[in-house]
Amino acid sequence: MSKRKDASGVGRRGFLKGAALAGAATTVAAPLGAIAQPLPPKRLKAPQGVSAIQKAAETGKPAQIANLPQGAADLVAATAGSDFMVDAYKSLGIEYIASMPGSSFRGLQESFINYGKNTSPEWLTTLHEEISVAMAQGYAKVEGKPMLNLVHATVGLQHASMAIYNAYADRVPICLITANVADATLRRPGVEVDHTVQDGAIIVRDYTKWDDNPGGLQHFGESVVRSYQITMTPPMGPTLIVADSSLQEDPIPEDAKLSLPKLPRFAPAVGDSGAVAELAKMLVDAENPVIMADRGVPGPNGVLNHLVELAEALQCPVVDIGARMNFPTQHALNQSDRRGALLSQADLVVGLDVTDLYGVTHAYRDQLHRTSRPMLKPGTKVVHMTAADQFIRSNYQNFQRFTDVSFEISGDSAATLPFLLEAVKKALPNDKKAAFEARGKKLAEARQASYKGAQNEAASGWDITPISTARLTMELWNAIKNEDYSLVNATQPGGYWSHKLWKMDKYYHYLGDSGAFGVGYGGGGAVGSALANRKHGRLSVSIMGDGDLMVSPSSLWTAAKHKIPIMMVVHNNRYYFQEVMHLQAMAERHMRDPKTANVGTEIANPNIDFAKMAGSFGVEGFTVTDPAKLGGVLQQAVAIAKRGEPVLVGVVSQGR
Amino acid sequence: MRGGIVAAAAALVMLVAVAPAQDVAAQNAGGGQQTAPKGDAKAGQQLYASIGCWECHGSQAQGGAVTGPRLAHTALPFAAVLQQLRVPQNAMPPYEPASVSDEDVANIYAWLESLPAPQSAASIPLLNQ
Fold first, then answer.
1. With the CA atoms of A211, A216, A218 and A220 taken in that order, what torsion angle do they form, in degrees rounded to the nearest 10?
2. Whether residue A180 is found in the same domain as residue A225
3. Span B43-48, mean pLDDT?
4. Is residue B18 scored above 90 in pLDDT?
5. Residues of B with CB below 8 A from A366's CB?
6. CA proximity to A132, closest of A144, A124, A121, A141
7. How far apart are the C-alpha atoms of A153 and A326, rounded to whole Å?
8. Which of A241, A340, A438, A476 is 20 to 30 A from A447, comparing alpha carbons?
């Protein structure tokens, strides 16, 4: 490491450059104290137990500052604690920050942009913290690693909180920073006092994996690396660090001995080898096994990589619950449409990181007296392999109802599958081959019948207006089917039709839901996923709900500002449609007027012009009401997105 | 709160997918009135829209993704439709006579019967790629 020439930080920038190139898995452990040589005149050692501002006043200045007129030298500093904080994040290879500005992290923001040269991570501007976090969630679903969000103290974190809950429930990694002025005597009167807090992380502690409030820079650096390790360990989830303003803005103490710890290589927990061998035998012995896959690790390391081979070895049906792209949609063993029939006959059900195992194995009746009944016959064995049980918080109940499982294997399903596959291959007796082939043949026939049924279902109402959701989805498929596409998110009907009729066989062909179904994920999530897909040259498309987009419409501006190509197809049914159905049901249940379900649920009169709205954000927009014209407009939109620009197509559509 | 509502709806969707309405209705049709009373299709169309049938079954009764089966040009007997409305076997809301009379149901049924048969998937290129 080169020695620092002066206090301008040249030497430390050299260190930083090395750190930035090092990436997440490489050592960045050069102690800053070894680099920063004491400069004349000799500085006073910062006394212990005083505020950071006092420390700065008592600490000497470098020559370039010392030559300033009297008084001025006391107003500036050549280093800042936030520079070291930037070093810490750069050492992890984080590519992007999405943030709405906030004065509580002004020191960090300035350091990321000037000291850090606004690269790796690059600063992306959002107009709402909920969008910032949704972008990070969408990004993580593609890349399988976190990006960074800075959210303003108190109010910014309050804005971000729903999106953080979505990400937590979706089990995706995000690194978050909020800020605070812990010392009440340093708070600027008025607004800053409103924006300070005793415990900055408490409002999201129920749905973050870990948080910390470092009291010093070395502590901060270690916590950054720890936060990355924790967020990336299955079950993944957001982590949060509170960056005190003084720690950000004050100069790095001359006697500071700072170093950044290595980010270790880490392997996720896999299921116990004995348990895996036992499960392999159960799968081989079962007459009617069913595998269900749902919310394993996001990104390229998911279960898709080995599940096909496992299913083919066993000729076993797979039901993709759909939180990730878990199994090729057109594969003969994809039996997602036949869950009810398969479960009723199953003697073994194996769940892979299923979010709501109880829900998908029971039929629920939402009437005045709510009831549920098991879809499984008595005696069916249920095995659940999941990492989710390794981290459960009590308050928010997204862990769902307790399920009667015969055998729980604690471990990340994607990491365990290769071992399970190997064990199954060893356990496969030759005399089972014919039986397995016969089972596979039956399943293929059922799959074909199911596909034909879906085609017929989609044909119903093909030419009607408002445009049918099947027509919307299939016109979109026709426009993108020859592209390297990524369906970054979809409304329920869009997901329904695309999974039945599109060819999806790569993990990024479908990126799943919002996690906790907090409305407003769509816009930010789509832009975040598109940001990640951009460098891979993929065409990102979204089937976006009108109600969802109106929670975070300014996500379009962020896409335009940062030239993020996303093709948003708005499924504009002019309602909060789920809610209109619920309200209808309540009116009928209470034997009251059923004609009022539009009150409070309708997003019409006036109708929202999504094309105009997009235009106001700098995004080209189209409106389509005629089904015959939809295909042509979508082709135009594909061309725009392929030029690297965002584009919106508002499609006035059926509700479902 | 919003998430909770959506999650509840997801459960509804699951049940409908497992027990399609037409199957249940058909099972309950036995013994009921097999011949539809004469109805006013135009009045039925208006009722279909105003009382909310369209929400789950589509504006042209073409069916909704997951929420409700196609009813246009239905082959279900009137008695099955009436039975499903009064005592739904799945998560469909119950429509009691106070809000939808038998005559109203007959009108709706007349409109459903008047709708064209579904288009063949084979005739739609985009569904045969």
1. 30
2. yes
3. 98
4. no
5. 8, 11-12, 15, 91
6. A124
7. 38
8. A476
Based on the fold, state whether residues A117 and A245 are members of the same structural domain. Answer: yes
Neighbours of B13 (CB within 10 A): 19
Please indicate if any CB of chain A lies within 8 Å of the CB of B96. Answer: yes
Give chain A's mean pLDDT.
91
- Gap between the Cα atoms of B95 and B102, Å rounded: 10
* Torsion sign across C-alpha atoms A98, A104, A106, A109: negative
Instruction: Tell me: do A53 and A188 sit in the same domain.
Output: yes
| Domain residue spans of chain B | 2-118
Indicate whether A394 belongs to any domain.
Answer: yes
Phi, psi of A535 (to 5 degrees): -70, -15
Q: Is the pLDDT of residue B14 over 80?
A: no
Average pLDDT over residues A71-99: 95
CB A522 within 8 A of CB A549: yes
Q: Are A171 and A140 in contact (CB under 8 A)?
A: no
pLDDT (tens digit, 9 = 90+) per residue, A263-293?
998 889 999 999 999 999 999 999 999 999 9
Question: Per the CB < 8 Å rule, is A459 touching B129?
Answer: no
Confirm if A284 and A432 have CB atoms less than 8 A apart: yes
**Among candidate residues A634, B66, A641, A510, the one with its CA nearest the CA of residue A651:** A634
Residue A376 structural domain: 273-444
Q: For testing the chain A interface, which of B48, B126, B128 should be mutated: the one with the most A CBs within 10 Å?
A: B126
B window 10-69, beta carbon within 8 A of A: 10-15, 17-19, 50-52, 54-56, 58-60, 62-68
Confidence band (pLDDT; 50, 70, 90) for A60?
Answer: low
Residue A542 lies inside a defined structural domain of this protein = yes
Total count of domains within chain A: 3
The interface predicted TM-score (ipTM) is 0.85
Contact A339 B17 (CB under 8 A): yes
How close does chain B come to A619, measured CA to CA in Å?
28
Q: Taking 80 as the threshold, does the pLDDT of residue B65 lie above it?
A: yes
Calpha distance A598→B64 (Å, rounded): 18
Rounded distance, CA A74 to CA A78, Å?
11
- pTM listed for this prediction: 0.89
User: What confidence category does residue B17 fall into, taking pLDDT thresholds of 50, 70 and 90?
Assistant: very low
Q: From CA A44, how far away is CA A57, in angstroms rounded?
A: 10
pLDDT at A461 over 80: yes
Residue numbers in B near A364 (CB within 8 A): 11-12, 14-15, 91
Q: What one-character DSSP code corresponds to residue A115?
A: I
Judged by average pLDDT, the poorest of A17-31, A266-280, A303-317, A368-382 is A17-31
Q: Judge whether A165 and A393 are in contact, CB under 8 Å.
A: no
Domain at B2-118, CATH homologous superfamily: Cytochrome c-like domain (1.10.760.10)
**What integer best gives the mean pLDDT of chain B?**
80
Q: Do B66 and B17 form a contact (C-beta atoms < 8 A)?
A: yes
A462's tokens: 């093909």
